[in-house]
Amino acid sequence: MELFFATLLYILKLKAFWFLVAMVVLTTVVQLQLPKWRGAVGERTIRKQLEKLGEEYRAYHDLYVEDAQYGLTQIDHVVVSKYGLHVIETKHYKGWIFGSENQKYWTQVIYKNKQKFYNPIRQNYGHIEALKSRLNLPNLPARSIIAFSNEVELKFKEPFRSAEVVHYRGLVKAIQQDDRLRLTDNQVNGIISNLDQLVDLPKEEKRKIKKTHLQQVRMKYSATPGKKVK
């Protein structure tokens, strides 16, 4: 009988050990995948928001455009209309966001943890320049918009001149209130025709482009601060 209970206790302990191991592995996987999941949810949210714009606007998502300086650049969203282009950089963050227009890096604060990230206004400026080059329109009327998750609290001390920084919920309003006519119908159609070529690429070519872009990003930002700030 003693042997029976000893064996049973051993089995229970063994099961408890493997349960703890499984929980540790699961927690690690969730922590690693959480930013990706947040990003996917955020992108779906933005797409649904842009669908509210109506037929006079044409939205493009996840475009890869050749950048003369850095190679391929990824543009989250581009909205084309007779009011010009609205180029949108999305940040699926939470916490407090600090920064200014001319700072190279901004800061995300969650409780006592601080994380630096590249100024998205500068980042989106590069996207706009790449679009101008591709479209061969150096004077292309394009407005930069930085859209943050509704979970963040924006702690900016000064207004921005070269971009508009909004929450997801304010994105559609930011685009619609910019209602000065800047492009003719022919110009809009020409831009749409050009960008459609990026969308209509074969799947295999798109995969190669994404892979190349990822490699370039890793090389470019290998020394970029993404560490905690003391």
Automatic annotation (TrEMBL):
Organism the protein comes from: Sporosarcina ureae
Keywords assigned: Membrane, Transmembrane, Transmembrane helix
Domain NERD stretches: 38-154
Transmembrane in keyword set: yes
Lineage top rank: taxon: Bacteria
Pfam family, one: NERD
Record-annotated membrane-spanning stretches: 16-34
Identification of the protein by name: NERD domain-containing protein
